[in-house]
Amino acid sequence: MRKKIVFMLINMNIGGTEKALLNMINEMPKDKYDITILMLEEYGGFLKFIPSEVRVKYFTGYQSMKDLLNKPPQFVSLHLLKKGRVFKAVTILFLHIITKIVKNRSLFYKYLLRKYPPLNEEYDVAVAYDGPMDFISYFVLKKMKSKTKIQWIHFDITKTGFNPKFASEVYSKFDKVFVVSNEARKKLLGKVPILKEKTDTFINISSLQMIKSQSRDGEGFTDRFDGLRILTVGRLSAEKGQDLAIRAFSKLVKDGYKVRWYCVGDGNCRGEYERLIKKYNLEDKFILLGTDPNPYPYIDQCNIYVQPSRHEGYCLTLMEARLLRKPIITTCFTGAKEQIKNGVNGLIVGMNEDEIFQALVKLINDNDLRESFSKNLAEETDDCKHEMIKIFDFVG
Q1: What is the DSSP string of 45-93?
Q2: Tell me, what CATH number does 109's domain have?
Q3: Residue 274, SS3?
Q4: Is 326 helix (H, G, I), strand (E, B) or coil?
Q5: Are 138 and 235 part of one and the same domain?
C-alpha cells in the first residue's frame, strides 16, 4: 500500500522553496507514495509543473482570513469599525495585544480557525513545508490528521521574523524538523535548543538530468551580444541583493569592460531597481528579463553566475549554476560555504558591491581560473540520492 503524504505551503510561486518541492516530488517513486499538495491559495507560475499524479487541494478558508494574517491588526480593526463590526474589531485588537504580551500567535490562529474542524482525510505523513511560516505550522499541527508530522525550515531564521517561543511550543510537537543547510540548522538550534534531537539537515534537491534537459528546451539569450554575459536568477527583492549587483556592475562599465548583466526573476523591488539602473545609465547593459519558470538556458549560456544575496537558507539557484558548471561568485550568506569552496569551485565575497566588483574583475581577466572552476565543478558528485534516503528512511 502506498504511503499518503501531504505537503502544505502558501502557493506555487516561482521560487526556490516551491522548486525544491517539485524536485523532491519528482524523485519519489509513484508506486510507493500517494502525494497531495495543500495550498493556501491557487496561485503561482509553478502550478502547471505539478506532476499529473499529484493531487492538489486548497484551504478555502484562507481568503477570508488573509488580511487578518498579513495586514497590521490596527488597520484591519479600523476597517472593521468603519463597517460597523465593533465586536470583531475589538476581538482582533484584544488578541493582538495578548499575542504581543505572550510573544506567541497560537491563540490568534486558534481564533481564526475556530470554525474549521480538522480535515477529514488522514495521511501517513503531513509536512509543514513552507517554513518558517507559523500559520502553516499551526494548521498542520492542529487541523491535519496524520501518523507523522514534519516541519521544514527553508531560511536563515535569524534574518526573518522568527518567533522562538512559538517554535519551542509548536515545532517541538512535530516528529521531525528538516533544515536546508547545516549552518541554518545551527542557527535554529541556537534559538530553539529544545529541538536538537528532532532536527536534521536536508539539502534542497536538484536533478542534474532534468536541468540539463530543460537547459536545451528554451531559447535563452536573444540579443546577440558578443561580450561576457553575467547572470543572476532570483526574486527581485532586498534579500536577493540585486541592488549590490547593479552598483558593482556600474564600476565594471565605468572601467570599460565589455559585459552585460542579466537578471531572471521579478518581485516587489523591480521599480526601485529600474530607477537604480537608470541612475547609473545602465538601461541597455543591466537587463531585467522578468520571470521565467525555466531559467536553465540562461544559466547554461552565461559566462559567469553571480549570487549577490543578503540571506538564504540553502540557495537552489546556486546549486543549479554548480550543476551546469558555471564559474560562480557568491556572497557569504548562510549555506554558501556548504556549496562553494572559495578559490576552488568559485569565489565567496562579502555582501557589498566593492567585493563583488573585485571578484568579477578577477574572473573576467583570468579565463584559466574560470575554466578551472568549471572543471572542478564537473568532478563533483550529485548529493540528490543521499538526501532522498533521509526522507525515505523516516517516512518508510
Answers
A1: TTGGGS-TTSEEEE-TTHHHHHHHHHS-HHHHHHHHHHTT-HHHHHHHH
A2: 3.40.50.2000
A3: helix
A4: coil
A5: no
Ramachandran bin of 326, using left for φ above 0, alpha for ψ from -120 to 50, beta for the remaining angles:
beta
Chain centroid to CA 370: 28
Number of structural domains in the chain: 2
Rounded to whole angstroms, the Cα distance separating 163 from 306 reads: 32
Roughly what angle, to the nearest 10 degrees, separates helices 16-26 and 316-323? 60
Q: Are residues 279 and 169 in the same domain?
A: no
* One domain for residues 71 and 82: yes
What span, in angstroms and rounded, lies between the C-alpha atoms of 353 and 361? 12
164 lies in the same domain as 223: no
Question: 331, 335, 337: which is closest to 351 by C-alpha?
Answer: 331
Using alpha carbons, select from 314, 371, 315 the residue that is nearest to residue 345: 371
* β partners of residue 201: 179
Pick the closest to residue 126 from 105, 100, 145 (CA basis): 145
Model pTM?
0.87
Same domain, 22 and 158: yes
For the segment 272-282, what is each residue's pLDDT rounded down to a tens digit?
999 999 999 99
Q: Cβ(254)–Cβ(285) under 8 Å? A: no
Q: What is the spatial distance between Cα 93 and Cα 89, in angstroms, rounded to a whole number?
A: 6
Cell numbers describing residue 376: 572542478
pLDDT in tens, 181-226: 999 999 999 999 999 999 999 988 887 888 988 999 888 999 999 9
Same domain, yes or no, for 171 and 294?
Answer: no
> What CA–CA distance (Å, rounded) separates 65 from 68?
5
Amino acid at 130: D
Residues 45 and 96 reside in one and the same domain: yes
Distance CA 368, CA 364 (A): 10
DSSP class of 382: P
> Could you say which residues of the chain have pLDDT below 50?
none
Are 217 and 126 contained in the same domain?
Answer: no
Length of the chain, in residues: 396
* Domain around 26: 3-206+386-395
Instruction: Print burial letters for 152-179: b (CB count within 10 Å at least 16), e (below 16).
Output: bbbbbbebeebbbebbebbbeebebbbb
Residue ranges of E strands in 156-311: 176-179, 199-201, 228-233, 259-264, 286-290, 304-307
Burial of 381 (0-12, 13-18, 19+ CB in 10 A): exposed
